[in-house]
């Protein structure tokens, strides 16, 4: 009996230590920011000259770029994934403005690029909220002209924002249903998801979003499983559309998808913005 009690105590001690380690390390397992000048020279390469903005988010300064065109079809509020910084997305922004005539407002979360602070789940949610407020109140953009677009981890940030704010539409690309679902896929038999405080519970939040939603996911995605993107779609209310991009991995959806990809994006933006304006 005494041996059994010791075993239980040792097990509980192990669980306690494991829980503490996960809580200490989990942000480093999720967020992989880089600071400028990494990828900054891509602006010159693509001959882009965005406006630079710094947004006050509590005690944190959030860096944003605003790429403008004349007579835009809409404005994209873009939320990037968990690695690099916003400058790494410049080739995509260049193509997006070539294929579809839109403004692009893109931020670096706290700790990324030129933004101060350290990234956390709650922190990146706040960054998006403050940036949205800045977009509407300082840049005087109308919500019915704005499409929120989140890619990968940025999809979870986009869902959180979209559940609080009324935009024209929501695009979710290569993203997942929840942080716990991702942890189960990444760590297999290790019960990391039980001990983690990171939620990114998009599956629960997306049920309250009533405006149009477009989901895009490569069926060869080697980072975020295709099934988790589909699971998030299944949780969402109508109106919604899911596009499977055959052969696409995590970061090449717009390359593999080609002209069909851009046609789908163009149609979605046209229909949702026009519908909001009517």
Condensed summary:
The chain has 278 residues and is α/β, with parallel strands linked by helices. 44% of the residues lie in helices and 19% in strands.
Supply the key terms.
8-stranded mixed sheet, two-stranded parallel ribbon, alpha/beta, 278 residues, 19% strand, 44% helix, Rossmann fold, single chain, 10 strands
Explain what you see.
- This protein is of the alpha/beta class and 278 residues long.
- The chain has 2 domains: 1-30; 33-277, Alpha/Beta hydrolase fold, catalytic domain (Rossmann fold, 3-Layer(aba) Sandwich).
- It is built from 10 helices and 10 strands.
- It has helices at 2-30, 42-45, 90-99, 121-137, 153-162, 179-187, 192-195, 202-205, 226-235, 253-277, and strands at residues 32-33, 51-57, 60-67, 74-79, 83-84, 102-107, 146-151, 169-173, 213-218, 240-245.
- The strands form 2 sheets. Strands 2-3-6-4-7-8-9-10 form an 8-stranded mixed beta sheet, sandwiched between helices. The chain has a two-stranded parallel ribbon with strand order 1-5.
- Strand 2 and strand 3 (60-67) form a beta hairpin.
- Helix 4 crosses helix 5 (153-162).
- The longest helix is centred in the first third of the chain and has 29 residues, at 2-30.
- The model has no long low-confidence stretch (mean pLDDT 89).
């Amino acid at each position: 009996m005494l041996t059994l009690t010791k075993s239980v105590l040792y097990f509980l001690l192990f669980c306690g230590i494991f829980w503490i380690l996960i809580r200490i390390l989990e942000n480093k397992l999720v967020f992989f920011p880089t600071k400028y000048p990494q990828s900054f020279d891509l602006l010159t390469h693509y001959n882009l000259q965005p406006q630079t903005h710094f947004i006050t988010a509590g005690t944190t300064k959030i860096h944003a770029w605003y790429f403008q065109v004349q007579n835009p079809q809409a404005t994209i509020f873009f939320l990037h994934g968990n690695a690099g910084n916003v400058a790494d997305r410049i080739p995509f922004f260049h193509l997006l403005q070539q294929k579809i005539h839109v403004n692009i407002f893109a931020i670096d979360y706290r700790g990324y690029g030129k933004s101060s602070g350290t990234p956390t789940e709650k922190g990146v949610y706040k960054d998006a909220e403050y940036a949205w407020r800045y977009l509407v109140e300082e840049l005087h953009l109308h919500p019915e002209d704005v499409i929120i677009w989140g890619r990968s981890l940025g999809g979870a940030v986009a869902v959180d924002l979209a559940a609080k704010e009324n935009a024209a539409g929501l695009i979710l690309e290569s993203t997942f249903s929840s942080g716990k679902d991702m942890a189960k896929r990444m760590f297999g038999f290790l019960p990391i998801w039980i001990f983690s405080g990171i939620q990114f519970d998009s599956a629960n939040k997306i049920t309250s979003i009533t405006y149009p939603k477009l989901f895009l996911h490569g069926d060869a995605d080697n980072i975020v499983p295709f099934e988790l993107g589909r699971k998030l779609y299944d949780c969402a209310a109508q109106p919604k559309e899911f596009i499977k991009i055959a052969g696409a991995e995590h970061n090449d959806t717009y390359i593999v998808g080609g002209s069909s990809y851009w046609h789908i994006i163009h149609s979605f933006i046209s229909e949702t913005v026009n519908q909001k304006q009517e």
